[in-house]
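Worked example 2:
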Amino acid sequence: MKHEFKPADHTWEGIEPKGYKADNKSEGDGFRGVTKHVISGDRGEPCNFVVRYFEVEPGGYTRLERHEHIHSVTVVRGRGYAVVGSDVHPLRHLDHVYVAPMTLHQFVNDGPEPFGFMCIVDSPRDRGQKATPEEVAALERGAATTGKVRS
């Protein structure tokens, strides 16, 4: 099955963009300005992974959370950074970051244009576990992460 890419609006034919966490959360619960496109893996395809595209508007960010599954993330548009554990990774076009199981992570757009990335995860997968206030406080004190975590 083909989903043709539409560069004018950075979407795919036949793939409806959804608000991030649209199934169970509303904006403001630790994230802002994030749209998700599920490209494959959720329509009965015989695979053990899901390919998703996330787009984060300028100043936006994903929720700081962890999962039992891995994330394989490749940037395709704009720039930003990823908080992964106690590290901060600046990201730009075609950079890749691996997020290990049960590692706190967050993606932040610190640029002037949309920050888009492909994210491949396991299927089935677990729901995200939000960072605790103590974990957020520890990151806010960290050498690399001070001033980088958003909530």
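The radius of gyration is 15 Å. The first strand starts at residue 5 and ends at 6.
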